[in-house]
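Issue 218. Parser rejects a valid record. Input:
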Amino acid sequence: MTLHDFRQQADAVRSIPLETVLTHWGAQRDRRDRHQWRTERGPLSVTGAKFFNWHRHEGGGGAIDLVMHLSGWDVQVAVGWLQQHLAAAAAAAPATPACSPPSSAGSDARAKPGPRLPVANRANLQRVRHYLTEQRCLAAGVLEPLIEAGKVYADRRANAVFLMVAGKANRPIGAELRGTGQRMWRGLAPGTCKDAGYFWVGVAGSDKIVLCESAIDAISCFQLHATELHIGCICISTAGVRPDPPWLYPLLARGYDIYCGFDDDQPGNAASCQMIRKTPAIKRLRPPAHDWNDALLASR
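Output the parser choked on:
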């Protein structure tokens, strides 16, 4: 089987509803909460195409990730199992876009639900603050203004929440989430549409923007440039490796100097090349280590 053939198979089964996978796997839905499922790996919370295991602090998105989580199999075995057992469900599953398109004036406003942002929990803020300053080495002088502005906070499960916004009014459109426990975990708040906006930190009015793969990397990149290189800039998180986020082009049109600061690894370098090939005005800015937070940790 060629790589192209495997990708086609994976694309065909990825959008199978998670409820279908769980039912076929033998999981039990909670009678009191239809979003909760009991599995051999522990209770799962399911929201659309996303799932999270709170006992194991692990989560993901799509049918393939779910089967890998439930079974411990690698991606090839998981795709094969889905094809063998749920091929009919794969054929019937609709394609799932990254987010719904903006509704027209005559459409039903209920067709596009907004993001369900985690509620801030001040009791867990110290744990999040300790994680970000002690384990991630983010400076209090950089972090505290973000906390005071409500751009970084703690939720009821002590996840670090990084608010994603859109437009000059900084309208909230979602959030990046980062677990602060022993198991590393990252995800997005339910309903987040990455195409609509981003998390950002920096000097308002700066003409330089650095694109990073996560909110923690964006804060780390800003901290390195502001405190060590004495360069004022704005650092934006793309919430993952994304070579062509739609909100990038309005920023280019406004005359910003934009640098692609994705991780110095195969996915980051490949996405950077794709971005620069499409938009030559963007320049590559490799972090001095694997990513900007690794560079910040190495500088301490």
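Fixed in the parser; the record now loads. The mean pLDDT is 84.
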